[in-house]
Amino acid sequence: MINIRTKKYVISKVLDAFFISVNRAYLFVIQFFKQVLVPPFHFSEIVNQCFEIGLRALSLITLTGFIIGIVFTKQSRPSLEDFGATSWLPSLIGIAIVKALGPLVTALICAGKVGSGIGAELGSMRVTEQIDAMEVSAINPFKYLVVTRVTATMITIPILSFYCIVVGLLGSYVNVRAEEATSFIAFFQSAFSTLHFLDLSTSVVKALIFGFTIGIVGSYKGFYATKGTQGVGKAANQAVVMAMFLIFIEEVVIVQVSNWIRYF
Length: 264
Known about the structure:
By secondary structure, the protein is mainly alpha-helical. It has 8 helices and no strands. The longest helix is centred in the first third of the chain and has 40 residues, at 43-82.
């Protein structure tokens, strides 16, 4: 009887903690949208965060995007050769990289590099009471720390996504050029020939949503970090895991909505 009561108590505590966390996250997101369009805007801090975010992820995105372009092209070639359709290879690569791989790969890399960095940075500020000191100094820490970082990720991730797409297509072109001696102009004309405005706009929307997710999750986990240095590491780890999980869910939802719009 005691064990049953204990289990019910534990389950109740877990559920209470879960719903409290969901409510706090909801209020955190609502607070962002309330303050993002209210002055002061801290443009210098937004620019600084854009520079930091781009610098953190640029080299890794360059390497990863180029390798993905080469590898995906090499893996797709044998399948198309079986049907005698190797001429469609640039179009296939263009569709895959622009519509899916470019934004998704960029978001996953930035979730690991940028999301963890934001979580660790704000977490360390929380446990060392720097955020409390800002509140005492009549500075809005949410506006200065959270809004600027989320805005910066929403600006930078689409730019990095476009850069990843270009680098990925260049990697694909290198492989196609080595195998078939296709010209640069012919390759890119073929790669973009089957893409439509909906495909490009969907890619941009994905990047914006992924950027918002990475920024808001990293900021949330860091802003409410506890338990000293151990909490900082936990906040950074949770920021990465949660951001990646949400990115995959958003990818599925956006693709489904895009298909519905295409059919209608």
